[in-house]
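Summary for the lay section of the report: proteins are chains of building blocks that fold into shapes. Here we show the chain for oxoglutarate dehydrogenase (succinyl-transferring) and then a coded description of the shape we predicted for it.
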Amino acid sequence: MELTLESQGYLEALYRAYLEDPFSLPEEWRRYFSALALEGSRREPLEDGRRATPPLAEAVDLAFLLKVERLVQAYRELGHLAARIDPLGRERPRPKELSLEAHGLLREDLFRSLPPFFGAPTLGDLLGRLEEVYLGPVGFEVVHTEPEERAWLLSRIEAPWPKPPREVRRRMLERLMQASLFEAFLQRKYLGAKTFSLEGLEGLVPLLLEAVEEAARHGVREVVLGMAHRGRLNVLAHVVGKPFERIFREFEEIFPEGYSGDVKYHLGFSNDLTTPYGKVHVSLNFNPSHLEFVNPVTLGRLRAKQDRFGDRERKRGLAILVHGDSAFIGEGIVQETLNLSRLPGYRVGGTLHVVANNQLGFTTLPEEYTSCRYPTDIAKMLSVPIFHVNAEALDELWFVLGLALEYRKRYGKDVVIDLVGYRRRGHNETDEPTFTQPPMYALISKKPEPWKVYAERLLAEGVVAEGELKAKEEAYLANLESEFARVKAEPGPVVPHGLSGIWQGYVGGPDHLVPEVDTGVPKEALKELLLRLSAVPEGFQVHPKLKRFLEARKEMAEEKRPLDWAAAEALAFASLAVEGHRVRLTGQDALRGTFTQRHAALYDYQTGRPYIPLQHLAEGQAEVEIYNSPLSEAGVLGFEYGYSLDYPEGLVLWEAQFGDFVNVAQVYIDQFLASAEAKWNRLSGLVLLLPHGLEGQGPEHSSARLERFLQLAARDNLQ
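The coded shape description reads as follows.
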């Protein structure tokens, strides 16, 4: 409970009830008011020998309690600024608002008793708990969330934290150790090769694995991961379960003819992981160098998986996005992705964002790459909780992860974990970081590996034994050596995975001639569909100007008028839907159509209620979804590209409001659509609608840079 002016009335009511019948109150309140009565008993006796019961204003020092409440609020709002979240141990200035003096409190007040709703018997006890919760290895930013959510979060943050079970702590230590040993092994075997090492942030590996298990406990069966290159090889090996032998073979960079391949730290993988709560399919997206541009692709893939399984509540799948600190705040695609999170056409039930924060952007320090206090401040636009966690504090990280996923499940919203670590090497393994950050790297050079820090904690508590750790280390390294030796003994090309699962039976590339397919529909069927597209429910008030639009479609069905473009498009969608193929179209003003031509949704002229004829064609038809997108090209195109990867049998379309708008989303054209087959053996059936041509409005609205598409279409790459 937060103490406010309204609390005074609440306290007075409790106090009156106590005076009338002490046993009408819970025991903790009886003890509190009994202590106040004891204070009253020390007063001078009245003339008749009785001792006066003090009035509430005197018995309860409301001014004192309000000061205490302001102190509590200061810790909740500002404690994160002084929390010990930096594993390099650098001091952070403590806000003056966290002092007793700032709120008019004195040292002697530490011994004064408090009402039960403060959760501590005295101010001194309360202060100790506030220091433990808010100035430890976790910095909480939750006061900007919605009132109900804030109350729920605070009730868990300020209650005693559960400690990870013994077996969980042992498991996290082993995963942390393996992540560190793997990086060191790569450094030895592939001297000078770029791996974009995770060293300094190895806590990401146990975090992601525990996230998969915890999500499985909540009923999640699909996890889709998106991340840039920092730590990707480690995540592939230890989280997704990509075989070591395949990773080592990719270092040889031998590719079969017709397959360009990609650098190993761009590649993806998928696998079934077994948890105590059932199997979870985990996919790590392939990703080009454009860091955060994989974000909406990841969400689009998850949305397609949810739609495929009829998961309308968005509970079956979880998207996890691993961001870089400077990229999270620096790249606009992040904001576009965050903005999609609660829109009906793009919602996936809440994304877990993990910022792999090594406190550097290549060679750039935070004060040079963000105008905000934290790179995560961009996420405050969603009013969701942000947890800053010291990457070496595994026990606390486990608690925060559980809280984050519980919040996501309860409220269906995004949540952010800012995992604060460091980068042991340069941006890549050939860089010299001391050129640009000598003081920082002087501290890093003295740091033991994170797993040794955590091992020391568990050894001291008797959770693990020294000999046991040594045996696990030796066994793991022996396995790596064995896999490495096999690759060296049997060198060979990296063979891309064939098309399997939902893509089985599809073909692509210049080596496969795609046969001509008869896509015609009988005339009578088209007439019937056009009549249904012209009908509205009884009592529906059509806009006066659209009555002629619907009449014209009836005339087209009766062959009294030729089909126009919009009617032909509607028939294409309708005929696919009744044959069982899902249709999904998104774009700015896609429902009405930029040129007032589509009118996929009709709006009741009196009530504004929408009616979409394409959704009412026949019993058992496939879904037809048409959404007005936000004013975003890149984010929405990325989402639809991702959707197309997991729904090949559906028609997935993105419409640029004007053709030239696609230029803003060129990364997705070049780095994903046009090159994914050659790089990653991944196909997409995404359709781009790029309306508008040379019609007198100058060059701006007239160029979708068609020459680029013609260049990219060589060897049947695009149709």
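Put simply, here is one thing we learned. The chain has three domains: 5-135, 166-496, 523-716.
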